[in-house]
Design brief:
mainly alpha, flat
């Protein structure tokens, strides 16, 4: 994680307030349950890569049309 160093610079009031808010809320975003889920997911992805398993297909193409669709055509579908 990057660490901000403000040596030799003066922070404005809003910047100090923002920095203080980030420091106070940091623990909420880095809770152990979320961190564990992220680590488990990254481990599972790496295992799939090592085994040569293709990634799960999340997105699928609905149509091959291009251009702007009119509201009348969209409602008619």
């Amino acid at each position: 994680m990057k660490k901000a160093v403000f040596q030799g610079t003066a922070l404005s009031t809003s910047q100090r307030r923002q920095l203080d808010f980030q420091r106070r809320t940091k623990s909420a975003f880095l809770n152990s349950a979320l961190e564990q889920q992220v680590q488990d997911t990254l481990k599972a992805v790496q295992e799939r890569k090592d085994k040569g398993i293709a990634p799960e297909k999340i997105w699928s193409r609905v149509s091959d049309e291009s251009g702007t669709i009119s509201v009348a055509e969209w409602v008619d579908r």
